[in-house]
Amino acid sequence: MLLSDQRPNFVTLVSLIRALGAFSCQEVIRVAHAYVIKLGFELEAPVVTALLGLYSMFDIGIACKLFEHSLHKDVVLWSAMVSACVKNEKYKEAIHYFRRMLYYGMETNHVTVISVLPAGAHLGGLCFVNQIHGFSIKRVFYSLTNVQNSLVDVYAKSGELKASISLFNGMWQKDLVSWRTMICMCIENECPREGLNIFLKMQYSNIEPDEIIIRHAILASVKAKEIKFGLGFHACIEKNGFLAFISVGTSLLQMYAKYGKFGSARMVFDQLDNKDLIAWSAIISVHARGGQPHDALSAFKQMQSINEKPNKVTFVSLLQACTALGAQELGESIHGFVTKAGYSSNIYLKSCLIDLYCKLGRIKQCKALFDETSTKDVVCWSSMIKGYGWNGYGFEALETFSKMLNCGVKPNDTVFLSVLSACSQCGLEHEGRRWFYSMQEKHGITPKLAHYACMVDLLSRQGNIEEALKFVKEMPVEPDKRIWGALLAGCRSKCEGSTKVAEFVFQQLSALDPEDTSCYETL
């Protein structure tokens, strides 16, 4: 066009500026801005609006200056400014511009309302959300489906799920976004069963679900522990052709993994066409967490054969598989891959590497990895404590735990499990008792069955069989096979009272699972 000596008008420039958004190149955007000024269109509201949208992607400050210098601010420009602030997480500024707009007597539209609503939700301003709700009713925007969708979304994000559901149920016209938003918000608010109910209601509407809704329904079935629904849903997915979407297939195989059906997860994976990195990482993770490390490594080799490059998630699963197998050579090879890929500073991968080398008994290398980690999170500390315990360095484990507390890192139940496990394996009975009782008294962490199992194991290893039995009987939670198994294993020490306790424990295990014969082997 320029080569033909044709002068573009502002409509052409608006189209050009919007097209530049796909490139996200600051220099090109600045050149386009300079060209706009050269042609004298810098005061045209549509041009300013288009430029504001571009600049807001990388410099909200310039976007604000553009807005303030504009002489002709229409409703579209005001709405764009509010939206730009929200996208850049400048929520207070978004509300400020909205209020300025009202102060200057500007007419708002439904886009303005939709743009400003998320600001209220992120600031926890339920009062503001209610005000906008009332404002939309007064200005007759409320009847618009996209305004109602936004209100459903922000009420749920503000912790008012009941209000969100009530608003949703009262909608006369629900579109795909309406159903998707409501199902997603139920899951986010830890009400997966309600999400499933809404999905089932959708089946009686004239709206067909898309792959995003199908994925959310799968997730809801897992969170609600509705195994039968999930299994039946698989048939529905295949029948309606949703397995063609790789994201749906990946969600489905992850669902089977959660249910412990690893064979079915693999079957779904094998059915997928054009497997992407997420699908490969998912199946490697499924095998690693399902106690199938050989299959995890086999999947990785298949992944390499098609030149699919692993990411951080893939490496985490691979390192977990190597740790489970104690595969030194392969583990070192994966470590090399991690370094080459530029992930060596990733804190979670560092923790996985510490786990691996601790399992291999290479405690010096673990310590070196741990010390070179500048910002240690609770997972990293826990890995080092657990590693010391595995290798019989009980006092070093407790010293590391003390350092963690001194650094101001708040312990969680996983860290305490590592501490108690180290005390049990290293025979530190006094320290184990002390830290167990401090969990709830000092740190407000309620012990889980795994913590009780560590204490039973600790007492049993020290020959305190009768005290261990008393401890089990006084537990505030019902003991499971793991608890009774730890106590039965301790009875092999042949200390005083162990035979009588063993007989009692055997009865408890038989009652829990009459078909399990492992207790006979322990006896």
UniProtKB/TrEMBL annotation:
InterPro entries: PPR_At4g14850-like_plant (IPR046960), PPR_rpt (IPR002885), TPR-like_helical_dom_sf (IPR011990). Keywords: Repeat. Coiled coil: none annotated. Gene3D superfamilies: Tetratricopeptide repeat domain. PPR repeats lie at residues 74-108, 175-209, 276-310, 377-411. Pfam families: PPR (PF01535), PPR_2 (PF13041). The keyword Oxidoreductase does not apply. One of its GO terms (biological process) is RNA modification. It comes from the Eukaryota. One of its GO terms (molecular function) is mRNA binding. This is Pentacotripeptide-repeat region of PRORP domain-containing protein.
